[in-house]
Amino acid sequence: MNEVIHLLEKHRSIRRFLDQPVEDAVVESIIRCGQHAATSSFLQAYSVIRVRDTEKREQLATWCGDQQHVKEAPLFLIFCADLHRWQMACEVQGVTMVPGMTEQFIIASVDAGIFGQNVLVAAESLGLGGVYVGGIRNHPREVSDLLQLPKQVYPVFGMSLGYPAQDPQVKPRLPLNLVLMEETYHEDRELLKDYDHTFQAYLNSRGSNQRNQTWTQTVAEKVTREMRPHMRRYLIDQGFEMK
Predict the structure, then answer these.
(1) Which domain holds residue 202?
(2) Is 115 helix (H, G, I), strand (E, B) or coil?
(3) Are 178 and 33 in contact (CB under 8 A)?
């Protein structure tokens, strides 16, 4: 155990924040940490947009499913997969980029995710807390227009950050033996059922938003209905053809 491992293992999603601004020097520092994350072939296929404007924040909060922290957090960032910069690089070199490849989309999406995780961990190391906002993809076209995103750029997720005004419990993760496998993929449904009891006990015991629900029930609720079916059409329109 060391300080880094301790920090990672105590991560919680924070959605309520003190009325305390995040200093610009802190913002710049955590973004620089994001830039030092691993990136495929050093292609750095990401951008992040800080949104301060009150009206934009209110609109984004509505599009994200009326999540109040989107408009109330001291700092709100939108992380984008960015292939437009590759296109600019090709133009500088006088060559033509081959657009719309599925591998390009994967690289940019993974790069943005790793970048964002570095930013969050750096923020937590400085006493901040935060939460990822996948709801930014509820209305991707409207978000793209609001942020004036060019073709070959899409918003992957948002992130609300600030100094925590709550102290939630750490959620129990899946048993290690369900995640770490040796040589080949394997199933263990009994271990999964045991985890259901652990997860259910956690939901019943926490201080707020108690629910009598297992983890597999939570998953089943999510994946037995279509999830943002508009994303495929939006991504194609935005230049991600998945060839």
Answers:
(1) 171-224
(2) helix
(3) no
Q: Which amino acid is present at 131? A: V
Residue 159's DSSP bridge partners are 77, 132
Contact 171, 211 (CB under 8 A): no
On whether residue 229 sits in a domain, the answer given is no
Beta strands in the chain (DSSP E): 46-50, 75-82, 129-133, 153-162
Angle at 107 between CA 93 and CA 114, to 5 degrees: 115
Domain identity same for 201 and 129: no
Last residue in a domain, options 168, 191, 214: 168
Secondary structure letter of residue 64 according to DSSP: T
pTM score above 0.85:
yes
Q: How many domains does one find in the chain?
A: 2
pLDDT tens figures, 42-78: 999 999 999 999 999 999 999 999 999 999 999 999 9
Would you mind telling me the total number of residues written for the chain in this entry?
Answer: 243
163 lies in the same domain as 83? yes
What single-letter amino acid sits at 26? Answer: V
- CA dist., res. 197 & res. 207, Å (int): 18
243 lies in some domain = no
Q: What's the pLDDT tens digit per position in 80-94?
A: 999 999 999 999 999
- Give the Cα separation of 163 and 128 in Å (integer): 5
Strands 75-82 and 129-133: unpaired
